[in-house]
Each structure stands twice: as C-alpha cells, then as structure tokens.
Write a structure and sequence with these properties.
With about 280 residues, this protein is α+β, with helices and mostly antiparallel strands. It is built from 8 helices and 10 strands.
C-alpha cells in the first residue's frame, strides 16, 4: 500500500527557485532567464501557477491510491509571490523553498495539493536543484523511495513523449490495456484543504511602533494558532518593519481565519507571503 507520493514535478519552477536561491535574483529575472533557455514558455502560467504540477499529482494520486483524483480536485498555488527575502528567511531557519506536489492517504481520504513549501534543508528533496525533478514515495512495506531525473528541456521532454507513444503502440499491438488499470477500485474521497493541519510561515509588512507584535500574536492565539518563532527586522527605508512568523501545527481553516483578521489590523500594512511548512 502506498501512503504518500509527493515531490518536485515541474522543472521550470525548480530551475527558477534554484536560481533565486543560489544567486539572490528576483522572480521576474529568474523567469526571463528560464524563457531564454527554453525551460519556460512564452506564457508560463501552467508552470509558475502550479497547474502543470496539479495535473501530474492528480495522475500520480489516482494510480497510487486506486481512486479517481481529477485535476479540479487539486488546490494549486504557484511561485509568483516568492521573493529573495522569503528564500533568505527560509535558509536562516534551516529550510528550503520548493514547489511541491503532495498526495497523502489519510484516515478521512486523500490529502492532495500543490503549493510552494518550506522543507528541511537536510531532506533529500531540498537538494534537487535546477531542472531536475524527484518523486518521493512512501509505502507500508517498501518504506521511503525516491525517483530522480531531468524534468525540463528539449531532450528530456522529447524522450518522455516518444517513450509514451512507443508504449501506447505496443499496447495496441498486443491488444492490452497497459499496466495501469481503472483507478477507481478504492474510491477514496478527496479532503477539503481547509482540513489540512500543518505548520506555516507568514511574512508581514507592519508599522514600526510599539504593540505590533502583541496585536498580531493576540489574533493568532484567538484563532488557535500557536507560534513557534518570530523574526522582526526594520525595513530598508525605515518606514516600517517586516515580521516573519513560523507556527506550530495548525489547521488551514484556523490559519485563514487568523490572516483575515490580521489583514484588517491598523498596524499591518500588508500580508507578504504565506507558505506551508511540510514535515517530511
């Protein structure tokens, strides 16, 4: 039985995040470079908005859990909001940021999603860089396994497409339906992402004045979100400050409720980036 299938399944975004991490460049510069090298298309939406990864994890989840998981069942967030500052904060706290496609078998159904994710820098997936992809599979008997290879570029893409065509032709010739049968024998439900429980990274732009930390922390406490750490730095222009919170495990529902209240606080100028932290 497969319990978890997750990983980095889009070479374009992984290349961009690697450039941003290694060289401190911003999203737009990384995208322009990826397009110039042929890793990103003129309209990069499918890649940078997580839609390509969502399509892939819907197929992988369907096969792994013998259940029908459609593209529309997969909540997807992309990497447009990621800044060099977010990557620096992640590195400062021992994490790397990757666009992760995640599918897990739970007691109440399939947890499936795509979003930028903070993972421990010590995990093997954190060292998957450039255009490389990796699928991490956990099974009840096989344990932890990882499959690794290039996921963007003309030759890797062409090899995958031609390989699929040859396999389909062989199936027609042999009058067989292939090795993957109907993915509906278990029919597990897909969970609402609001039921997700994980830790979170939250970056806020706030006023640099007394009482800001207490006001925000009070909202988190009121919404049952426990805080693990906080970093506060004054803005470069001296007009405000930046606060980064990392929470303990909390529900997505409670976190979104807290952010809704925090966004309306007078002392908060804007919510910068919100990332989920995956304990692998």
């Amino acid at each position: 039985e497969i319990n978890t299938v997750l990983g980095i399944v889009n070479g374009t975004t992984n290349y961009m995040l690697t450039r941003m991490s290694d060289e401190g460049i911003d999203y737009e510069t990384a995208l322009t470079d990826a397009q110039a090298r042929g890793f990103a298309e003129a309209d990069p939406s499918a890649d940078v908005d997580g839609l390509d990864a969502a399509a892939k994890i819907s197929i992988l989840a369907s096969i792994a859990f013998n259940s029908r998981v459609g593209f529309a069942d997969v909540p997807a967030e992309g990497i447009r909001s990621i800044t060099p500052g977010d990557i620096a904060y992640a590195q400062e706290t021992g994490y790397a940021i990757k666009l992760m496609a995640i599918a897990k078998r739970t007691d109440t159904g399939i947890d499936v999603r795509v979003h930028p994710t903070m993972i421990r820098a010590s995990h093997p997936l954190a060292s998957v860089n450039g255009v490389y992809n990796a699928i991490y599979v956990v099974g009840d008997s096989v344990g932890e396994t990882m499959f690794f290879g290039e996921g963007a570029g003309s030759l890797p893409a062409a090899s995958a497409v031609v390989g699929d065509l040859i396999e389909a032709a062989r199936h027609i010739q042999d009058e067989c339906r292939g090795r993957v049968g109907c993915t509906c024998s278990e029919s597990l439900p897909v969970r609402d992402i609001a039921d997700l429980e994980t830790s979170y990274y939250v970056r806020l732009h706030v006023r640099d004045e007394p009482g800001v930390l207490a006001a925000i922390a009070g909202v988190f406490a009121d919404k049952r979100v426990s805080l693990a750490s906080v970093i506060q730095k004054r803005g470069d222009d001296g007009s405000g400050a930046e606060i980064v919170w990392i929470t303990h495990v909390a529900s997505e529902r409670d976190m979104q409720a807290a952010l809704s209240v925090i966004a309306d606080l007078d002392v908060v100028d804007s919510i910068g980036t919100v990332l989920r932290v995956e304990d692998l």
